[in-house]
Amino acid sequence: MTFKSVLLKKTFLLTLYIVFNISIAQSQSCNFTEVLQIEAQSGMRIREQPDLNSKPIAGVPYKAVIEACQETFGSARIEGIDGHWRFVRFKNKSGYMWDGYAVVVSSQSTKSISVVSQIQHSPQTATADDLLEEIVSTKPPGKADWPFSEVRLITESYPYCRDITTIDRSLFYYSVYLEDDYYVIRPAELSIELKKNSPKNVLHFNIKPAEGDGSLFIIGLKVPVKNWKKIRNNDFLLTQLNRTLTPGIRLDLYPYEPGDSYGNIKLIASGTVKSYQSDCPVVENYSLMVEMMLDKKEFFDLTDQLIHRGKCGVPDIFWFGDLNQDGYTDLILVGEYPEYTAFTLFMSQPESALKYKKMSEWIVEDCD
Fold it and tell me: Are strands 93-98 and 102-107 parallel, antiparallel or unpaired?
């Protein structure tokens, strides 16, 4: 190769490098005008550069939504599917993602871009809640207008004999129903009725949605949510499992589909069963852990947050699914005692130091 050929090659490579880096620089300031939903059941990775060999910086779970620039940064055919590299933003992480397994669910006009900015940085009132329809699940925990910063858990109770004044009637309540292959979430007016023929000096109440009954549970939020995703029916799996989380139990739980996905978790109970007394295991050093995949596999201990473990000292799993719509698994545990039953709701918050947080407890006493 002649000196002139070498010089031309170096000049060409330098030009490519400059053009590539100009494109990269432009991507950092591009407008996030589109909202994409991830359709790959195993989730997708955000990378430092538009290249499959580039370092991954974040994982986006199945059915999560991300903001994306309209501009593309090269095309690629992967597993027989054509797609483009897009600059995207998911929660507080920005980078490049191949869009072959993503669908556009919203395309914003220039006017709407400022609206997106407002949603990210300022509280929204109930009258402006329609602005949150497509991007509610991109909001990180801790924001004042994120609907799931505070949650109240309730189950239908017949009768309920605890202090009903602790139930905040100003919240927006939603009932979770099981319908065929999905859990369906509907707005609910909370009905609290005094039960007739209550025992003397003890008031008993019926708590349920004002219309209909048979809900699995009810949640109350300070901020309304309009675009609830359907949650896959997991009851068929729970009926096949030992719901009691005794040491040695390891459950694969998921928000949408079983398998290897960023939003899926493993619930792991450990400890030593010394003996059995009255059908209860005598357990030492009990712990309940969540294994989840973020940028890497991580473990988080729920033990200290779980106060009501039931008469045997080990809880049961009552429900799991993606309740806060962030693409990760949420769960409800239940502890049964002779005098009462306690439900504990844990929600994922992968962007916080406490990855799984106890959001609410609900206790139903035996009123007899």
Answer: unpaired
- The candidate with the shortest Cα–Cα distance to 256, out of 28, 13, 62, is 62
The DSSP H or E segment spanning 22 is helix 3-28
**For each successive 10 residues of the chain (368 residues), what is the average pLDDT?**
45 42 51 85 85 85 87 82 89 88 72 33 29 36 68 93 89 92 91 77 86 90 87 80 89 84 90 88 93 85 95 94 90 95 94 90 90
Q: What is d(CA 331, CA 295) in angstroms, rounded to the nearest whole number?
A: 22
Report the distance separating Cα 297 and Cα 61, nearest Å. 14
Tokens 């023929």 map to which residue? 197
Q: Domains in the chain, ordered, with CATH?
A: 31-110 (2.30.30), 151-365 (no CATH)
Element (H, E) at 219: strand 217-221
In a 3-state reduction of DSSP, which class is residue 164?
A: helix
Can you tell me whether residue 368 is helix, strand or coil?
coil
pLDDT of the residue at 218: 96
Cis ω for the linkage preceding 159 (within 30 of 0): yes
